[in-house]
Design brief:
With 528 residues, the chain is of the alpha/beta class. Helix content is 57%, strand content 8%. It is built from 23 helices and 9 strands. α9 packs parallel to α12. The longest helix has 42 residues.
Length: 528
């Protein structure tokens, strides 16, 4: 009688341990400690800035600010930072950075990416404990959705996944405990303010939940439901209001920095919106959309559509919220997620997808219909294979950062000047160890060398460009024709003028070919 429960506990522990080990291995495959590229890098530096400023300011850490207060050599593009009250701040909401910055007191900067493990397993535990997910479904939840790609980089997405599960417990699982309602309310308010794009889904879910309650019962039943959720709704509302106030105090706008930075993105043409609809929901420009990544969504919508009158109100609400969110987001989003592998704007939709999949998955497994079983297996396998493909793409990006760290260790420069902002991201988390800059013209190079000669005497500087055999002028022109839309091309430096200026103003001048780069190196002599 005693042995059996212990055996079950051991078996349960082994299942959790196996899931943990496999998730760690598959995250580690992409070298996440070198994954700080673009948004991931920018969020890392935002987090580091709070730590660096001892939580006294959200001023972005920019190592060149002392001699470049006008940000002529700052790498962030316009929609990734804002100027506010004589300081530069990240366009990303501060809540996620504030939550993770204390970790830097005990862990190195490059380890922050592993925070995704905490949020992932918090989400898995909630799914297991409150949503009654089996372990096979937990495996599908991770490897069979784009939750896997979202965990490779340092971002708020795994936290959005976990806190959304937690935040909807009173609605989806009828949890009435005051403690759970309080935590759920805080979680939901945090998710909404960190990702404003989650608001359509949550709003639709609440709307349809109360609509069907009213339709099947009465207005009094809605009031009764609201009373039973009074703590949850009040805490959520207060959480949002407090964050509105914080945004108003810090950034003079209650919606915060992300909204302000994206204002131009909200004003794109209807044609552009249709293109985003295609890329977010299907496929375009090497971006895998929701239906392309999760083709099981099609049969789920068809099945629940046919059974709409007989399924529970909860499933009706989830289905309609899922469908309308997919229709709405492309027409209110500031962009289509750029180069993400999997539609990050739909992170919150992983939850309704899984909850709608769960009963169908169980029903098919119990059935003797091998056609349905094989179809289910093939569709899930397809999503897993997409994840593997994305992992290989991600590994190529992390390899770029990993390999460039070898160059910085060998040359040990104080100042690094790159040809464009994407090239700069090769610095990864080493951004805090060097003064990393971007120069977009020969004239800016010469101005920079003059400034540094006055202020940085004795410092080693390197200028970094792609090796001409790797990036020919023809290729550069083709790439810049596309990049011109965003106004941030790969620079074309006049190498004769660069070399002449460096020979004049530096000692130990060298031209070095390393990996895929051509590097000009020297030690700044100082002004005459």
């Amino acid at each position: 009688m005693v042995i059996l429960p212990k055996a079950k506990q051991l078996q349960l522990g082994l299942k959790w341990f196996l899931l943990f080990i496999v998730v760690v291995v598959f995250i580690q495959y992409t070298s996440p400690q070198n994954s700080y590229f673009q948004d991931s890098h920018d969020k890392l530096i935002q987090t580091y800035s709070l730590y660096f400023n001892h939580f006294q300011s959200d001023q972005l850490y920019y190592p060149g600010y002392e001699f470049d207060p006008n940000l002529n050599y700052f790498h962030l593009v316009d929609n990734l930072y804002i100027k506010c009250k004589d300081r530069i701040v990240s366009a990303f909401p501060i809540q996620f950075a504030a939550m993770l910055a204390p970790v830097l007191y005990i862990l190195p900067l490059s380890y922050l990416v592993y925070s995704s493990l905490f949020f992932l397993f918090l989400g898995f535990w909630i799914l297991r404990r409150y949503y009654k997910f089996s372990f096979p479904l937990l495996w599908i939840c991770y490897f069979g959705t784009y939750l896997w790609p979202l965990s490779w980089e340092y971002s708020e997405m795994p936290a959005v996944f976990a806190f959304s599960l937690l935040g909807l417990l009173p609605i989806l699982r009828n949890q009435k405990s005051i403690f759970i309602q309080t935590v759920a309310g805080l979680s939901l308010s945090w998710v909404i303010m960190v990702r404003l794009d989650t608001l359509p889904f949550f709003s639709l879910l609440f709307f349809f939940t109360f609509l069907f309650l009213w339709k099947d019962h009465s207005f009094l039943s809605i009031l009764s439901k609201i009373v039973s959720l009074k703590v949850y709704l009040l805490v959520c509302l207060l959480g949002i209001i407090l964050q509105f106030i914080l945004n108003e105090i810090l950034y003079d706008h209650f919606f915060g920095t992300r909204f302000l930075a994206n204002l131009s993105g909200f004003q794109v043409s209807f044609t552009q919106r249709l293109e985003w609809f295609q890329s977010l929901n299907f496929y375009a420009d090497k971006k895998v959309g929701f239906f392309a990544y999760l083709p099981l969504t099609f049969p789920l919508i068809v099945y629940y559509g046919k059974q709409f009158k007989t399924v529970s109100n909860l499933k009706k609400s989830l289905l309609l919220s899922l469908i309308f969110t997919l229709l709405v987001i492309p027409f209110i989003a500031p962009n289509d997620g750029f180069n993400n592998w999997g539609p990050r704007f739909y992170t919150v939709l992983i939850l309704p997808y899984l909850l709608l999949l769960k009963p169908i998955y169980i029903k098919i497994l119990k059935s003797k219909n091998w056609i349905l079983r094989i179809t289910l297996l093939l569709l899930i396998t397809y999503s897993v294979l997409l994840g593997i493909l994305g992992a290989k793409i991600q590994k190529s990006k992390t390899s770029l950062v990993k390999n460039f760290s070898v160059i910085t260790k060998e040359l040990n420069p104080d100042i690094i000047v790159f040809t464009d902002y994407l090239n700069l991201y090769s610095i990864g988390s080493d951004y805090t160890k060097h003064i990393s800059l971007v120069s977009y013209s020969t004239e800016k190079n010469e101005q920079l060398i003059k400034i540094l000669s006055e202020k940085m005497r004795g410092k080693k500087i390197i200028f970094v460009d792609w090796h001409p055999l790797i990036l020919t002028q023809e290729t550069r022109n083709v790439m810049n024709a596309e990049k011109a839309k965003g106004g941030y091309p790969i620079s074309h430096w006049d190498l004769n003028r660069l070399e002449s200026s460096l020979k004049k103003n530096t000692s130990n001048f060298q031209i070095i070919d390393k990996q895929v780069y051509r590097i000009w190196s020297g030690t700044i002599k100082g002004a005459n």
